[in-house]
Amino acid sequence: MINITLLKQNIKNNYKLFLVFCGILLMYFSIMITMFDPEREDAIRAMMNVLPQEMTNALNFNLLDTTLIGFMASYLYGFLVIMFPMIYIIIVSNRMMAKHVDSGSMAYLLATPNDRKNIALTQLTFLAGSIFLLIAYITVMGYLLAEGFFPGSLDKKIFFDLNLGAFALHFAFGGIGFLASSFFNETKHSLAFGGGIPILFFLISTLANVGGKLENLKYGTILTFYNNGDILNQIQGIYLNFSILFAIGFICYTFGVVIFNKKDLSI
Amino acid sequence: MSVIEIRGLTKDYGNNKGVFDLDFSIEEGDVFGYLGPNGAGKTTTIRHLMGFLNPDKGYTKVLGLDARTEAKKIQKRVGYLPGEIAFLENMTGLEFLKFMARMREMKDLSNMNNLIQRLELDPKGRIRKMSKGMKQKVGLVCALMDDPEVLILDEPTSGLDPLMQNVFVEIVHEEKRKGKTILMSSHSFEEVGRTCNRVGIIKDGRMVAIEDIRTLQEAKSKVYHITFYNEEELNSFKGICKELIGTNNSTAIVKITGNVDSLLKELAKYRIRDIESAHQSIEELFLHYYGGEKVD
Fold first, then answer.
1. Do B170 and B259 share a structural domain?
2. In a mutagenesis test of the A interface, which of B48, B99, B100, B151 is the best target, namely the one with the most A β-carbons within 10 Å?
3. Cα B118 to Cα B137: distance, rounded to the nearest angstrom
4. Helices in B148-243 by DSSP H: which ranges?
5. Is a pLDDT exceeding 70 seen at residue A145?
6. Could A104 and B75 be called an inter-chain contact, meaning their C-beta atoms sit closer than 8 Å?
7. Are A114 and B72 within 8 A, CB to CB?
8. How near does any CA of chain B get to the CA of A11, in Å?
9. A169 vs B248, which has greater pLDDT?
10. Residue range(s) defining the domain that contains residue A130
11. CB A226 within 8 A of CB A235
C-alpha cells in the first residue's frame, strides 16, 4: 500500500529538520533536569515565583508537586514537549502533500504506477511515523537524563503516561496538519489551517490555564485532553482522553486521504 | 480500440475557461499534435488524460481504461511530460531520474543513460540551478526512459534550442516507427508539422478541427518574398502572377495556398536573387482555414 522509494525520499528530505528538533529538545531537557533539586527549593521554582501567578499558570509552569516527575510534568511536558513537536509537525505536514501539489512535483509522483491513495498513505506513514519517533526519542532521552542525574527517583509509570499522552496529542496535531495539507492546493492555505488550528488550540489552552472565567475556554481546545496534572495524579479518565486524541487524529488522516483521492489536481 | 478516447469531456472553470464537449480519439501508432494558443485548454485536456482532474461531464479513456479511476494501471504504460517544470527539491538530475526509475519499478537503466547522452543532458548538477532547457531535458528523459507504449507530452520542445529540437523530432520519429502512440501539445504549427500525422486544433476549450496533417498543410497559405535581379524582371512577373499581394523595390510578395509547384515553375523563367518564406502563426492559420470567419 505504501511506496518504499517515496518513503526513503521523505526520510532523506526531512532527517536534518528532525535532528534539529532532537537537538533543541535535548538542550532544554538537560538544562531543565539539572535545575531540579529534591532537597531545596530548586532554582527554577525560585525564578518562577518572581513571575506573576497568571503567567506561570498560562505557561503551564505551575509546579504540580515537588517530586522529579512532578517537576518534569510541569516544566517539560506542560510547554516544551507540546510546542517543539508541534512546530515540527506543522512544517512537515505541509511538506507532505500541499507542497508537492503547489510546486507541481505531485504530477511526477502520480505519473508513476502509484495511485493517489498509495502516495497519500506513504506521506501519512512518514508523518505519523516521524511523530512517533520524535516522542519515542523524547521518552528515551528524558528517561536517560532523569536516571543519569537522579538515579531511581523517576516514577516510570507516570513518565510513560506523560509520553503516551504527548504522542496522542501530536498524533492529533499531525492529523489536522495532514488534512489541511491534503485539502488545500496552495501551501499558504495549508499552513494557515494546518498550522493555525494547532497554534490556536495552544493559545486557547494557555488562556484557559490562567483560570477564572477564562477557564471555560478549555472546552474549545483539544489540549484539554492532555492534562499534565491529571496524568500526574493518575486520574482515571486520562486513557479515555488519550483515545479521543487518537480518534481525532485517525479521523483527520482518513479524511485527508479520502479528500486527496477525490479532488481536482491542477498540476 | 482507440488508445486515447475522449468523449463529451467538459470541465467548466467559469468565464469560458476550461474545455467543452471535447470528443476525439487517437488510434494506435498515431502521432497526434494538439494545437492551440495559450489558455485554449490543451493542458486541461492532458490533466484529464492523466487522471488529475474529475470531468464535469463525459469521460477519458487511455488504453481502454478510465483515466480517472484506473490511473495506476495506465501510468505504467504511459510516459508523461508535464507542461510545468517542477521537480522534487534538492536533487540532482541523476538522483531525480533514478528516483523516478525506482518509482516506476524500472529494472533496466540503459535507455535512460542513452537518452541522457542523446539529449546532451548534464545530469550531475542540481535541478534547481539548471537552465530551463536543461530542466526540459530531464523531463523528456523521464517521460521516455521506461519505453512506454503511449507518450503524453505537454509542450515538449519548450526551452530547447533548435539543435535539440531536431534531436527531439528524431526521437519522436523513432518512437513512431516502434509503433508508439503519441499525443503532444504545442502552439507551433511548424513543430507539429515536422512530427505529427494528425492534428487537432483547440480554441477557447472547443475542438475546432481535427485533420490529417497534409490537409492542413495544403490549406495553409505561405507568404514568399521573392527578390528579382532587377525591376524589369519583377514587372514582367507582376503581369502573370495572380497571388501577388505587394511589391517592394525589386521584391514581390506572394501568398500561396497549398501547392507551390506552379509558382516555382514560373519563377524558373526569371533570374532570382533571393527567396524567403515568412512563417504563419496559428492565429493566421485559423483565419485562413476557416475562410476568415471568427471561430467561437
1. no
2. B99
3. 10
4. 162-177, 189-195, 213-219, 231-240
5. yes
6. no
7. yes
8. 13
9. A169
10. 4-262
11. no
For residues B87 and B134, membership in a common domain is answered with: yes
Q: Hey, are the CB atoms on B76 and A113 less than 8 Å from each other? A: yes
Please tell me which of the candidates B53, B90, B102 has its beta carbon nearest to residue A264: B53
Chain A nearest C-alpha distance from B62 (Å): 13
Q: Looking at the structure, do residues B268 and B208 belong to the same domain, yes or no?
A: no
**pLDDT tens track of chain B, all 296 residues?**
799 999 999 999 988 899 999 999 999 999 999 988 888 899 999 999 999 999 999 999 999 999 999 999 999 999 999 998 888 878 999 999 999 999 999 989 999 999 999 999 999 999 989 999 999 999 999 999 999 999 999 999 989 999 999 999 999 999 999 999 999 998 877 788 889 999 998 888 999 888 888 877 777 677 888 888 888 888 888 877 777 888 888 888 888 876 788 888 888 888 888 888 876 666 666 666 555 444 43
Measured between CA atoms, how close is A104 to chain B, in angstroms?
Answer: 5
Angle subtended by helix axes B93-103 and A4-35, to nearest 10: 110
* Same domain for B172 and B47: yes
Phi, psi values for residue B280, rounded to 5°: -110, 135
Burial of B84 (0-12, 13-18, 19+ CB in 10 A): middle
Does residue A267 lie within any of the structural domains? no
Domain encompassing residue B254: 221-279
Work out how many domains chain B is built from and give that number: 2
- For residue B167, what is the domain's CATH number? 3.40.50.300
Whose cell is 533570374? That residue is B271
First to last CA, chain A: 23
DSSP tag of B126: B
Which residues pair with residue B31 across a beta bridge? B182
**Does residue B263 belong to any structural domain of this protein?**
yes
- pLDDT of A64 over the 70 cut: no
Backbone phi, psi, residue A149, to 5°: -85, -35
Shared domain check, B135 and B81: yes
Q: Are residues B251 and B201 in the same domain?
A: no
Q: Provide the number of structural domains found in chain A.
A: 1
Look at residues B174, B194, B212 and tell me which one is the last residue of a structural domain: B212
Tens of pLDDT along B24-43? 999 999 999 998 888 889 99
Cβ separation B72–A13 shorter than 8 A = no
| Mean pLDDT, chain A, whole residue set | 91
Q: Is residue B293 domain-resident?
A: no
User: B146 and B39 in one domain?
Assistant: yes
In angstroms, rounded to a whole number, what is the distance separating the alpha carbons of residues B176 and B24? 20
Residues B207, B229 within the same domain:
no
Q: Give the ipTM.
A: 0.86
Closest chain B C-alpha to A250 CA, distance in angstroms: 25
Show residues of chain B in contact with A2, CB under 8 Å.
Answer: none
Question: Which chain B residues contact residue A107 at CB under 8 A?
Answer: 50, 52, 80, 82, 84, 86
Q: Do B82 and A5 touch (CB under 8 A)?
A: no
- Is the CB of B13 inside 8 Å of chain A's CB atoms? no
